């Protein structure tokens, strides 16, 4: 069999000497359906674990989702996402512009196209009209319809005036193929600028500093919570809910605003529903959590990855590898969300220049994801 | 002090003030009373330990059992010796008085044999043997804080690059800079790197700026900030 420490030559020799049974197994992969695939991958994982070759969690057969298996058969569908582009209006050659364009190309290459593309917030770096305009221009090349969400980098120069003028309301809901979608503005900070006399530019710069302690924690705020409760009142409790928020709707790490201060109140509004998923940006990393009936998934940034917070990491998260700074795109990317007929989702992380990662609803529901206690992730 | 130490034994015993307080231990020993630290092992090398009141000066008297009264000539020697050593106020000093009355002094791991009371110990005393004053410490802290604050400002500023980016965008609170792991072989640079080499790589590449000379005040400030953020993390040069 194959081992992690084999040289290329040894792997080739092992492959040349593979048994009839191996051969049959490999051949069967080509024609396997979802159920068979799971059986095969579990068998591989079991074999590897039994041989003590690798810890079970690191043996993940990554299967690139084929269009035929999503949106078909089970009443499911698929949408994609791009998030946290942090654009500067400094010309087309700026590294963040190139990254955003790369993500748009990824989206346009999806065949068939996703039902829509979610933009996860932080389109601009400093909320400037020219940055937002540049972002709109880049996103206008998307073939699929776009759903916009606002981030703090879009908001704090003019408190959202320009963004709302360009993209519409900062919070809204819509229904799509049996799922009720809610988009929130979760980056509302209590006024810290008036008393100190900060200019809009200073206010923006403070909020743009992830570790700047002069700002306040993010919130959804009472007004939006009231709106959310009213919006959900007419929705059946069995209807799957998918919420988009820029910040994670739970409390991870306050000093970096990996945090929503009224997260518990928002979760309480969502609790009566059977199936709830929150997709969030802001954290620029693979992030998985589950609180009661709510599954949480982070989105990758196209601009740069953030290190994991020194504390508070949810036990459901298996960290992505530490990025190589010498590769601009490492640790960055975009992704897709496969929505099952049940309303639960598989979260696909399309990590540029790395193997993709998938966090499935099945493993999250079954608590099958080994958390950091089982998996010593990279240290920061 | 010297004058006091040369006063007669009885005078000291009935005296008052600092000298008397200093010598309470000696008196107690001399009269076979309690109150002193436990003595060294008994037997052939029996000895008594006598502490000065500052608990920093210890005289070990050889040839005297812990419960034995130190004969007066030697007790006087011990008292004089303790008073003498008190000149080195902050130092922890151990002196050993042999059966032949020879004195060996140990201070900061250095041993001085045949010490003559009243002579100078050839010690290099930092800050003239005085503890740092609160004012000194406040000045030093302010100076250090100024450098770290400047590093903090630069680390969060776009002024060392040309494309708007700042160090802290990828490294909030200097996370993932791990300054404690340098020097190390930086595989991407294909050479051993110091922290400043990686800082300059970041300035030149993601920030698209110009490298800073190693002695540039901005480089010093950036290094100071990163190290300050990692205070308490064990040094592990070479770690990947």
Short description:
The complex is a heterodimer of chains A (380) and B (240). Chain A is α/β, with parallel strands linked by helices.
CATH topology of the largest domain in chain A: Purple Acid Phosphatase, chain A, domain 2
Q: What is the CATH class of the largest domain in chain A?
A: Alpha Beta
The oligomeric status of these chains comes to: heterodimer
The biggest sheet of chain B, with number of strands, parallel, antiparallel or mixed sense and barrel status, is: 5 strands, mixed
For this structure, what is the CATH homologous superfamily of the largest domain in chain A?
Metallo-dependent phosphatases
Distance between the termini of chain B: 59 Å
Shape of chain A: globular
Bulk shape of chain B: elongated
Tell me how many strands of chain A there are.
12
Main β-sheet, spatial strand arrangement of chain A = 3-2-1-10-11-12
Major sheet of chain A: 6 strands, mixed
Unreliable stretches of chain B (pLDDT < 50, length at least 5) are: 1-43
Q: How do the helices and strands follow one another from N- to C-terminus of chain B?
A: HHHEEHEEEHHEEHH
Q: Can you give a write-up of this model?
A:
The complex is a heterodimer of chains A (380) and B (240). In chain A, helix 9 runs parallel beside helix 10 (263-270). In chain A, a hairpin with a 2-residue loop joins strand 4 (172-176) and strand 5 (179-183). In chain A, the strands form 2 sheets. Chain A has a 6-stranded mixed β-sheet with strand order 3-2-1-10-11-12. In chain A, strands 4-5-6-7-9-8 form a 6-stranded mixed β-sheet. Helices cover 28% and strands 15% of the residues of chain A. Mean pLDDT of chain A is 87; it is low at 45-73. Chain A has 11 helices and 12 strands. Chain B is of the alpha+beta class and 240 residues long. In chain B, 36% of the residues lie in helices and 12% in strands. In chain B, strands 1-2-3-4-5 form a 5-stranded mixed β-sheet. A two-stranded antiparallel sheet of chain B has the order 6-7. The interface between A and B is medium-sized, with 23 and 17 residues.
